[in-house]
TrEMBL record:
GO CC terms of this entry: negative cofactor 2 complex
Alphabetized GO MF terms: protein heterodimerization activity; RNA polymerase II general transcription initiation factor activity; TBP-class protein binding
Lineage of source species: Eukaryota, Rhodophyta, Bangiophyceae, Galdieriales, Galdieriaceae
UniProt keyword list: Nucleus
Regions annotated as coiled coil: none
Entry keyword annotation includes Transcription: no
Protein name, as recorded: Transcription factor CBF/NF-Y/archaeal histone domain-containing protein
Main location: nucleus
Biological process according to GO: negative regulation of transcription by RNA polymerase II; RNA polymerase II preinitiation complex assembly
Presence of the UniProt keyword DNA damage in the record: no
Domain Transcription factor CBF/NF-Y/archaeal histone, chain residue ranges per copy: 17-79
Organism from which the protein derives: Galdieria partita
Compartments where located: Nucleus
InterPro entries, sorted: CBFA_NFYB_domain, Histone-fold, Ncb2
Pfam family, any one: CBFD_NFYB_HMF
Amino acid sequence: MSEEETDFRGSYDSVAIPKTTVNKVATEVLGSVHLSSDARELLVGFCSEFVQLISSHANELCERENKKVISPEHILQSLEELGFGDYCQEVKQVYEEFLEIEKRRSKTSWTKMTERTGLTEEELIRQQEELFAKARENPLADSDE
């Protein structure tokens, strides 16, 4: 096998999307149709290659703008420029759903913390800020004092 060829069982292991993730998506999409192990390996390799293509292009866009962080806009622009513009609307929708879930998760963790401690969110934030200030004053101090 030449260097240009890809052994999906070897060279993608370090950058591959987890096989369980690909298997789960394939099962959800295909339903009762089963994939051979070779077909699954090929799918994992393809998914990894696709992610690498999009992320590499997004990184180039990011560098052109002298930015250090790839944003969702870079990903969407990469999809458009690489000929995958048909996916942009669905990607935007999934991203918005993700943000909603994260927002609820964040509120839920604060709610649990306030219930457990009996303190309000503002009191917890004040305590946290005091601890940060104390740590800045003496970073090597024992936190049990």
